[in-house]
Amino acid sequence: MSRLDNPEDPQERARIDKETEVEIIKAVRSSDGKNPVMPVKLKPADMFCFSCHDGVSCWNVCCHGADITLTPMDILGLSERLDMKARDFLAKYTVPDTWDRADLPVAKLKMTGQDGKGPCSFMTGEGCSVYESRPATCRYYPLGLASIKPKGSDIKEDFFFLVKETHCRGHDEDNLQSVTKFRDQQGLAGYDEGNRGWIDILMKMASWQSIGGPGGKEIPAQTKQMFFLVSTDVDGLRQFILESKFLDTYEIDPQAVETIKSDDIALLQLGFDWMKNVLFNDPAISLKETVMHQAIAKARENMGAT
């Protein structure tokens, strides 16, 4: 049993007993002081009215001054669309930030204008120039995605909520649809699946924040940097896994090693499994037996020395 999954640990018990809700994807640009989030949890079959097209009076208003946290799948898609290395895309089109709920670093899409309230860098007179590869936040709008882990349960549940900003006239359109239909039309299934490991980590870290981090300890800066690398730079992650001592340290199936040499999504999944192990001692990935024995011997030696 992991020390982080021990129900007798009072800190762990406090976490388990607390129902945690974490908003993962929400883009809100309202500046009138009103909360545009409708306080209703939506399930996949629930219905809502909305349509966005060039005939609505607010066309492209939501593409100005947007607060868009880029997911790992966003960065993969946009980098490929622009034929750029991920690190080059980050340098040109994003700004570093921290997702406060989890105190972990993220990349946000850079807006134009000195105050950051101008249009998105990809906005043109005809609309979005990268529409087919647009970020998940843009695809989801006007929905938000949240995850919940009910008290006493190890099963995470996703739910959705409606973002109803005062400027948006899309809500006035006569287009009743289910959450499932909307998500299918926006091509979100693959995005959510590819981002799952990232979302899991953000959600779990948010649940630990009330006691200062996993086990009550703050995450080291170096670990945060590695989380950012895994989240944003597949080339850097691939180089790290294949050229460092990573494969000498962790038990990775040889076929999986071959797969990650060319499959970016599989590489992301491995990267986030690794981060779960580093952050939470999650068994999704494990140390090689010889490395484990060496670590135990070293720990015993240090205990004897003290």
**Approximately how much beta-strand content do the residues carry?**
5-15%
Ranges where pLDDT stays below 50 over 5 or more residues in a row are 1-8, 10-18
Biggest sheet strand line-up: 1-8-9
Task: Return the domain count.
Answer: 2
State the distance separating the first and last CA atoms: 26 Å
The tally of strands reads 10
State the share of residues found in helices, binned by percent. 40-55%
By DSSP (H or I, 4+ residues per run), the number of helices equals 12
Shape: globular
User: Radius of gyration in whole Å, from Cα?
Assistant: 21 Å
Largest sheet: 3 strands, antiparallel
Which whole number gives the mean pLDDT? 85
Order of helices and strands: HEEEHHEEEEHEEEHHHHHHHH
Query: Which secondary-structure class do the elements indicate?
Result: alpha+beta
Task: Give your account of this protein's structure.
With 306 residues, the chain is of the alpha+beta class. It has two domains: 3-206, no CATH class; 233-305, no CATH class. The chain is built from twelve helices and ten strands. It has helices spanning 10-16, 72-81, 86-93, 136-140, 179-185, 189-208, 221-232, 234-243, 246-249, 254-260, 264-280, 289-305; strands spanning 20-25, 47-49, 69-70, 94-99, 104-109, 123-124, 127-128, 143-149, 157-162, 176-178. It is globular. The two termini are 26 Å apart.
